[in-house]
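Mods, move this if it's the wrong board.
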Amino acid sequence: MVADPSNPVDLERIAAAVSEILEAMGEDPTRDGLHDTPQRVARMYAEVCGGLHQDPREHLVTQFEAGHQEMVIVKDIPIYSLCEHHLVPFYGVAHLGYIPNQEGRITGLSKLARLVDGYARRPQVQERLTSQCADAIDDVLDPNGAIVVIEAEHLCMAMRGIRKPGATTITSAVRGIFRDDVATRMEAMRFLNP
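Not the wrong board. C-alpha cells:
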C-alpha cells in the first residue's frame, strides 16, 4: 500500500518492521494502545521523508526578471528533519540568502522555503542539509553569492546519550561573494542576528 504515487514508500513493509521492533522491545503490538501504531508510524515516515522522492532544486527553476542585484534573505524558516544516525527529529530554523547576478533574476521567496523543506524531509545530517541548500541556490540561480545558516536542536542529543536538551547546533555554508568578501558576509550575518 503506497500513500501517494509521487512518494513510493512501502507502507506495509514499514508497518511490519515497526511491529517487529515493538515485539523485540518486549511490547505487544496488538494491545489496545499500540494496535494501529505500526500503520501510523509508516504514514508518518512517508510524510517526514517525502523529500527523498523529489529534487528540491526544481523549486528554484521558476525565476523572474526584477533587475534586483542586492541581497535577498529569507530568515527563520522552520525546519524539521530526521537525524540519519538515530532516526529521531532535529528541528530549528533556516536562513537562506543570495545576491542576484548582473541579470537581476530572482526566485519566489516561497521557493527558498520549499528548497530547504525538500532537503530536510529525509534522513539527514544538518551539515549536509546546509551545504545542499547553498549548492542548489548557487547552481540553479547562478547568483553572485549564496549563504545558508541553520540553527537546530537535535533530539538525539537531548533525549538520549549526552542528554543535553536546549543545546543548539549552528551550521553555515557560503558560496561566491559571501565566501570571498568578509564585509559582505558580515553584512548578511548582521541581518540574521540583529
